[in-house]
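ESCALATION

Customer reports they have been waiting on this structure for their group meeting. Please prioritize. Original submission:
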Amino acid sequence: MNRYQFVEDHQRRHGVKRLCDILGLSRSSFYYWRRTAAARAARRAVEAGIAARIRKAHQESDGTYGAPRITAELRDEGGQVINHKRVARITRTIGLEGVRLRPRHRTTLADQAAAKAPDLICRDFTASAVNTKYVGDITYLPVRGAKPLYLATVIDLASRRLAGWAIADHMRAELVIDALTAAEKTRGNLTGAVIHTDHGSQYTSRSFAEICRSAGVRQSMGAIGSSADNAAAESFNAAFKRETLKGRKGWSSEREARLEAFRWLTRYNTRRRHSRLGQRSPISYENALQPAPTTLTQAA
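Update from on-call: job pushed to the front of the queue and completed.
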């Protein structure tokens, strides 16, 4: 129990002076505590309301948001402006946190004999306009007791929008071709755009090079074995795994993996806040630049 509260509760029987002497309190500090009781109660009520809003935002993010994104959610709701430090403190107090990274699974199998494209990105994962620079990659979707799935993505570096994606139970070139085709459908055309990838055999294949030429896309590749040369795609994959698996080792079935992937990928484009976009979703960011369709093209 709070010592001041103890004095308050027992003062009539023992007196304030005696209780303060026994408990090592000054009477002035006790009287200040009693005088400010109403203000403290009001603050607790306000923080209880903020805590309820934090729980709601955390729940709506499927338990994935940490304090920065929760702060952005609360600010977009309007009303009282809440400092991010206060949100972080209350979030810790009520025992909430965002999800964390899991170890990576290797999906890049380089073909040493295949032709390589030049590095047109040079680790500059920004773009001044949408539909000019993309990154592509494959990530592994573990399914317990069954063959794994693989997700191929094509991400716009200007808005971080997932322009195209595909899921399959293999890592053949058709997987990345389907993802690029989906991106072309989303954008209408990709003429003049750059697609930056690693040196995986899917991306160095003749069939992928041909679809790039047909779409008017220029291929770009970083150094072999350097994840930093495709950091934007790696970051996306890490967020996807972190926020869908939430510490699990895999999905219970292929159906569950596909459904959860579709749900998260759709939410990523339309609702998930991105720190590089001023805590806006990719489509919200694009709409602020120029109204555009918000449909997520599925390829599977």
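Sent to customer with the following note: The beta strands are 133-141, 149-156, 162-168, 194-197, 218-221.
Escalation resolved.
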